Amino acid sequence: MNPGVVLLVMAIVIIAVSFIVWVCSRYKKCPSDKIMVVYGSIGKNKDGTNRSAKCIHGGAEFIIPVFQSYAYLDLTPISIQVDLRNALSRQNIRIDVPSRFTVGISTEPGVMQNAAERLLGLQLSEIQELSKDIIFGQLRLIIATMDIEEINTDRDKFLAAVSSNVETELKKIGLRLINVNVTDISDESGYIAALGKEAAAKAINDAKKSVAEQDRDGSIGEANATMEERIKVSEANSVAIQGENEAKMKIAMSEAALKEKEAEALKIATTAEKIQAAKALEESYAAEQAAEQARRAKEQATLEADIIVRAEAKKREMELEAEAEAEQLRRKAKGEADAIYAKMEAEARGVEEILKKQAAGFAEIVKSAGGDANAALRLLIADKLEELMRVQVDAVKNIKIDKVTVWDGGANGDGKTSTANFISGMMKSVPPLEEVFAMAGMELPSLLGKKAEETSKEDKELEKTEAELVEDSEE
Fold this sequence. Notes:
- By secondary structure, the protein is an alpha+beta fold.
- The chain has helices spanning 3-25, 109-118, 124-143, 148-153, 155-171, 191-220, 225-368, 373-394, 418-429, 433-439, 456-474, and strands spanning 27-29, 34-40, 53-56, 60-62, 68-74, 78-88, 94-105, 175-182, 186-187.
- Among the domains are: 25-74; 76-193, Tetrahydropterin Synthase, Chain A, CATH 3.30.479; 398-474, no CATH class.
- 65% of the residues lie in helices and 12% in strands.
- Helix 3 (124-143) packs across helix 5, helix 7 (225-368) packs across helix 8 (373-394) and helix 9 crosses helix 11.
- The termini are far apart.
């Protein structure tokens, strides 16, 4: 193989092995007599705050380089000698209470976290001094609440109070109380010694009294044994009955007091329960009222939003319909206008063609008349003469003369009858050809008639014809 490749492979293997060894070296195991405290970047608590430390007892943890580090807390018990002197009791008597306390770092999760935060890095002597100060203060506080008799005779009660108070305070710094041993209790005034002497003297006197009573009983003799027995029995019975009665009275009084206390307690409990129930009911009603108001406001807002949305939609729909209808009308109007325009344009083209044809026809007529316009006009009139006469006659042909009734008082001044005047006026209402031509700005050709002043003969003949028509209608 190539030596370069071999060297490269060996280098890679060495680097990989070194990395594995380094990673394994960062996996730290915690001994059973210690607590391993990992600190650095270790995450957050449930409330979102940065976690100060992570405590491990009896396990192992991988320590992330650069971001984390670790240290140990020793679980070795610490013995503390507490020579408490001149502690003031509840009776204002100063006593000495020499004792020995054994403490150690707690492995309880919450208390172990306190130890990691407050004791990490301290020596055992420093932890011992800190614990000693706490024990001194709590021991003085407990002694101040107890009598000397309780401290001296009821040691279990005293030790229980010491354990409870001292351990509560020690847990705040991460320690637990393992053992308490009170060696001896003394005072400067000799009160405890006097109590001991009193107890010893009482025991001696009781013993002497017992011996004297026994001697007396032995010297009475057998003669008085029966009488003494009977008297003693009677007295014992009397005392027993009296004792029983007193005991029954005490029991009855105790039961009455107990029942009274129970009634008071039941009354207080019932009152408190009713008050709490009333408060809970009041809070429930208030919560229901608030919920109802919120629901009403929500429903009102929803209803208003629905109404507004529907109104906006209706408004938009109406606007769209109006725009569509307007557009339809505009298109219809445009179509009708286009149709009218097309119709009028077609009619105009038709009229134009007619006029062009007429003009061409007139030009041909004039051309046929040799260029004489009057001659051409006479040809046109001659062609339309029959139609003109028919128009004149059609104006009065449908009048039923026999149905006309004329009321008049007699002959007029000109010698004509009312009927004749009516017929004459009706005939004159039809415009003569001369007036028609005059309105058109033209002059009637001489072949069709003359002016009024030159045609009196024709008027007379017309009047004669009218008179004949009237006579015929009267007949």
